[in-house]
């Protein structure tokens, strides 16, 4: 016996399906296990593994490997699970509302409006001197307006000045200091980071970050590419299409002597012959074009003797369009 086994041995029936992952487990393997070729039934060693039917007459295999048919077969169960998820999410709604209430109050404190009162009916802060269309009894219950010395904003400005006094440096380092490609890529990435900072006025962003950290206590941001012609202007972009051009000249290959005659030379000779014939006959007759002939042996050449030059596909500018400029925006 090997005290340190390194691999498991597959002992199932040849051709059997391996047990599926997920909630189905061995149920899918039991349902889709191949029958015995001799009697058409499961082997005795595998018969006891057949899963019993669940409530409602559905097995795990009927619901799918990942329960993708659960909503179709058991809609009430799916609705109950969704209701549990909704209740779980609603547990954090109260804490989030208290957080929003504190953030709004802090922003009013920053503006020097520190005698606001909270109205639970509309979930908002109200000021004593704001105009309200109601009776005088509600105005009597409101607190009086008093003069405010805004210490909150003063400490906040000190915090912002400390936070935004220097822009954090962003530098990229090569993965391998011995590779010239990695060094060039790291240097280019550092230059791009500097350009993005200049385009987004990162000093002003640090000031805004300090403000939101002081009043809200949290903030989030993301970097994305924005194409906006009103902000960044436009540029003309060429519209290309593919055309085929020959790398050389088409030529006739004489079937008798094998001499190659360029199409341009053969057409020039034929046109000269037609011009001489037209001059001798007169303008009343039109002489048809003559078939090209081989200049070496005089044999007639046809389209079957024409050999096309090799052609390649190249782009060509067909039009221009106006495209908005874009840049990375933080």
- The helix fraction, in percent, is 25-40%
Number of separate strands: 9
Order of helices and strands: HHHHHHEEHHHHEHEEEHEEE
Structural class: alpha+beta
How would you portray this structure in words?
The protein has 330 residues and is an alpha+beta fold. Among the domains are: 64 residues, no CATH class; 58 residues, no CATH class; 62 residues, no CATH class. It is built from twelve helices and nine strands. The strands form four sheets. A three-stranded antiparallel sheet has the order 6-5-7. A hairpin with a 6-residue loop joins strand 5 and strand 6. The protein is elongated, with a radius of gyration of 42 Å. The two termini are 64 Å apart.
């Amino acid at each position: 016996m090997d005290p340190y086994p390194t691999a498991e041995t597959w002992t199932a029936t040849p051709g059997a399906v391996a047990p599926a992952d997920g909630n189905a487990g061995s149920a899918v393997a039991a349902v889709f296990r191949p029958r015995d070729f001799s009697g058409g039934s499961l082997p005795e060693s595998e018969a006891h593994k057949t899963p019993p039917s669940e409530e409602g007459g559905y097995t795990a295999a009927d619901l799918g490997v990942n329960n993708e048919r659960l909503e179709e077969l058991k809609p009430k169960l799916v609705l109950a699970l969704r209701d549990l998820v909704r209740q779980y999410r609603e547990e954090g709604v109260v804490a989030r509302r208290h957080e929003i209430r504190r953030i709004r109050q802090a922003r009013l404190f920053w503006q020097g409006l520190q005698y606001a009162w909270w109205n639970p009916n509309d979930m908002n802060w109200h000021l004593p001197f704001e105009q309200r269309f109601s009776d005088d009894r509600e105005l009597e219950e409101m607190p009086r307006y008093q003069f405010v010395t805004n210490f909150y904003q003063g400490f906040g400005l000190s915090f912002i000045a400390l936070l935004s006094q220097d822009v954090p440096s962003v530098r990229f380092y090569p993965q391998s200091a011995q590779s010239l490609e990695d060094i060039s890529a790291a240097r280019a990435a550092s230059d791009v980071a500097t350009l993005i900072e200049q385009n987004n006025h990162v000093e002003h962003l640090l000031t805004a970050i300090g403000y939101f950290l002081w009043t809200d206590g949290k903030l989030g941001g993301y970097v994305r590419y924005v194409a906006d012609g009103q902000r960044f202007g436009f540029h003309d972009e060429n519209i290309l299409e593919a055309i085929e051009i020959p790398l050389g000249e088409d030529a006739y290959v004489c079937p008798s002597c094998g001499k190659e005659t360029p199409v341009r030379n053969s057409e020039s000779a034929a046109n000269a012959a037609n011009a001489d014939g037209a001059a001798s006959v007169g303008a009343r007759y039109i002489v048809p074009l003559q078939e090209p002939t081989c200049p070496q042996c005089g044999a007639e050449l046809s389209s079957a003797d024409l050999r096309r030059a090799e052609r390649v596909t190249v782009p060509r500018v067909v039009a221009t369009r106006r495209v908005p400029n874009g840049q990375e925006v933080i």
